[in-house]
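Q: Trace token order:
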Amino acid sequence: MAVQWVLVCHGLTTLMVVISFLCGQWPIFQGTFVERLHNFLTFGAYEYFLKFVGKVCGDRGENAVISVEYYCCYRSNPTLQILYAAILSATYYFIVQSSFAYIPNYYLSDIHRYISIVAIGIGVILFLLTSFSDPGTVTAENVSQYISAYPYDDVIYSERECSTCKILKHFCLCLYGSIALSLILASRLKELKIIHILTVYYGIENSFRGLAPHVAQWLLSSYNTQILLMVFLVVVCLLMAAFFGYHAKLCYSNTTTNETYKWQDYESLQRKINEAKASASALKASLSGLSLENKPPKSKWKSFFRRSPLKDVEVVATKNIYDKGLVHNLSEIVFPLSTRATFVAATIKKTKVKVR
């Protein structure tokens, strides 16, 4: 019984950490423990760690940590590619070592051994194509073409001098792996006649409520590696589905991830400005009311139920000039401007004119 409570507490703690990390910045959690935990996980823990290193190792150790942060977060590096390759290789290795011995079975034929290899191969090929593809570079030769296609909106982008002038496949791989593992476990249940043994020899009620705890206990004790892999793949599936939905929304509005933060900062700034204006107007009105000596005093009940002037603050209106409709937005994603013949020809022509 104690072990079950430990598992329940572990699950609730993990759920709280995941919700705080992913959703702690939402307005609904403002001023709550979830927001404070989010701030600690995203900023506070690193700041405390940096202070600890500075106290123990001095400025030299603190500068080393900052240099690692700069390399990992602000410079082009293969860290994410190496991490993805390691996770993919380790997961497939454990699946082969723990589950391939049970294929073929009642639900899966021998062909799934080769289907898994093909699926992993397609994932690796797409991963390599993504890693070595050119994302495009804005240079002095092609910047005018990009500006003509995406003009400054003078809201989140303005002209100034600058000093440094594939998700769905992951979801399918994880979904296929989790389904295959669940079918393997179901096949073992059927081949070993676990349900029959529990109901006939142990007198367990033949219902989901009666059999579920005993079947789960048997699976965890006999096939714990497969259970852990299946849970891991299901969690990754859910994260990939949410990630895909988020980026599909960005594609629908032709907005980048960086632009979403810029719009949030802009709306927050405009909201504060409007609130400051409303507060100034309310203060001015109250001062002018005090200067009128002959004016009869207002009822206390009217003052109590009077609407706050801050509630009359106008909603910040935003207009994304880069959102040109679903079809046009998708065409720009599937066929970027940098790959179009007209755009490349215009860039080459301008370069030749400059050379002459």
Notes: The mean pLDDT is 77. The chain has 13 helices and no strands.
